[in-house]
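Hi, here's the filled form for the chain we discussed.

Project: internal
Contact: R.S.
Residues: 244
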Amino acid sequence: MTDYARDAAAVRGATDRLMSSVSRLEESAVDEPSLLPGWTRGHVLAHLARNADAVVNLLTWARTGEPTPMYESEDARDSAIEDAAGRPLPVHLDDLRTSAFRLYAAAAALPAGRRSYEVTMRRGVLEPAGRLPFRRLLEVELHHVDLGVGYTLADLPAAFVEQALDFLTEVRFAGQPGVPPLRLVSGEGGRVRHTGRAGAGREDLPAVTVEGPSAALLGWLTGRTDGAGLSCPDGPLPVLPPLG
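And the returned structure, exactly as it came back:
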């Protein structure tokens, strides 16, 4: 599902697209609402920059073996985003650029033999270092959409959408008590994925089938849409917990 070198290269491409979008904004756009409730575009941009540094911390942890948390604390993370949200657009752009370069360097410095080393993300989630570039790719691509600057779910690269669906179904939501058993059918080719409380073949908990285009499935699973473009022959679309 993940390939370290491929994902690291994809992060560069996604970041370039993000920077191109942001560089075309008017100065006042930073203070305008994003598509995330309660956050301006400035909040999203500040979060992306600090998340890059947080991933650098985890890559450093994996390389050295010395615990280096993503953030000093949840309060410190939230304060850093809030404090930086209202900065001028050129400052946001410079922060995005320089934090991205730090991330590229940290990713390149991680030896192949350390990619199976597990680090601890927010909320105690254990993650192999080899999946950190993909984790960053999720942040960049989805928050690019959240900026509300014309980059939509339909613009996401098809390979990324399929990889993200694999991650969500096989890792993020698999076996989660708050996620009902789901049978997800992609419109393109009819690929079937199972996730949630029950896997395939569980007769005591029949899976709810949800069908539609891959991008629409991704939007629903990540809370970016209410399920527009999807069909659920078994009844109403299930309510999913926040992705977090």
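Let me know if anything looks off before we file it.
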